[in-house]
Design a protein that fits this description.
Number of domains: 2
Largest sheet: 6 strands, parallel
Bound molecules: nicotinamide-adenine-dinucleotide
Oligomer: single chain
Strand order of the largest sheet: 1-11-8-7-5-6
CATH class of the largest domain: Alpha Beta
Radius of gyration: 19 Å
Number of strands: 11
């Protein structure tokens, strides 16, 4: 019988912990932590993500501000906005919601973010620090996966962890983090050119799926007793629902779950922990900014 790595419940618990810490700091006379978000254009999914980040910030007592720019904003104007946020001492950390419109070079924008305020952990400096094992802002989704494993006490030392997907925001950093001291997994990183994928995934004690293909991982690809972390999020039409859609992941849960020892549900698994990690990174940036130990 499998057990759920319940990200929703865990996220509520961690939010309460952060909110308590913020309240205690306020009582000591400190100002509130401040997380800002920059959003360019009207992409629906990006609007939802930013709204969720704003809501969660308020729930833990942070100040949150959203800087909205029209789709037609030039790269130069956006770089100026980044510079303003870099220099505002009242803003502890900020994110630039991706994707950006096609005429803006995302890497130029990310590179302009001060590493000390880069709470998404996307700048080259933070990626480099993370890989070197130095103190760094770690990208939110891989950090959330690590939190789930740690808080649920999942044994990782010496385990074979197979990651499917090598994106810069999920697969590559999570593979790095889980191979480090503390987690001590033996990691295999698979991608679109990997041969014999099912053979590799069947040897996984811990299988992390961040591939972006609905229900790609089926029962034949999973070893009995494996821990399965499904990062995928897909909205598919469902007329039986009031909303008209439902959310599914990269794993075919109706056949895979029964093989697992632990599995993340979709929704309610990795997603809520991603936002938590952003709040944790903001808290870290805030303490650094105000020199709070
Ligand atoms: P991406 O598209 O950047 O990367 C997908 C990776 O999968 C690539 O590295 C590619 O090589 C690999 N891949 C594609 N087809 C493959 C195949 N047939 N076999 C093996 N590997 C293959 O995706 P991403 O940004 O890492 O996101 C992955 C999924 O996670 C998406 O569904 C995304 O929506 C979701 N996501 C969720 C969260 C969250 O908070 N839960 C955060 C980020 C991304």
């Amino acid at each position: 019988m499998f057990e759920l790595l319940d990200g929703k419940t865990l996220s509520i618990q961690i939010k309460n912990e952060i909110a308590t810490e913020v309240r205690n700091l306020m009582a000591d006379g400190y100002r509130t932590p401040h997380l800002a978000a920059v959003i360019v254009g009207n992409d629906g999914a990006s609007q939802t993500y930013v709204a969720n980040k704003e809501k969660s910030s308020h729930e833990v007592g942070f100040t949150s501000s959203v800087y909205r720019y029209p789709e037609s904003t030039s790269e130069k104007d956006l770089l100026e906005a980044i510079e303003f946020l870099n220099n505002d001492p009242e803003i502890d950390g900020f994110i630039v919601q991706l994707p950006l419109p096609k005429h803006i070079n995302e890497q130029h924008i990310i590179d302009a973010i001060s590493p000390d305020k880069d709470v998404d952990g996307f700048t080259a400096i933070n990626v480099g620090r993370m890989v070197l094992g130095e103190d760094a802002f770690v990208p939110a989704t891989p950090m959330g996966i690590c939190t789930l494993l740690k808080r649920y006490g999942i044994e990782t030392c010496g385990k074979h962890c197979v990651v499917i997907g090598r994106s810069n925001i999920v697969g590559t950093p999570v593979a790095n983090l889980l191979s480090r001291k503390g987690f001590d997994c033996t990691v295999t990183l698979c991608h679109s050119r990997t041969k014999n994928l099912a053979e590799l995934t069947r040897s996984a004690d811990i299988l992390i799926v961040a591939i972006g293909k609905p229900e790609f991982v089926t029962a034949e690809m999973v070893k009995e007793g494996a821990v399965v972390i499904d990062v995928g999020i897909h909205r598919i039409p469902d007329e039986s629902r009031k909303s008209g859609y439902r959310i599914i992941g990269d794993v075919k849960h109706d056949e895979v779950d029964k093989l697992c020892s632990w599995v993340t549900p979709v929704p309610g698994g990795v997603g809520p922990l991603t936002i938590i990690s952003l709040l944790e990174n903001t808290m870290k940036a805030y303490k650094k900014n105000l020199n709070i130990k």
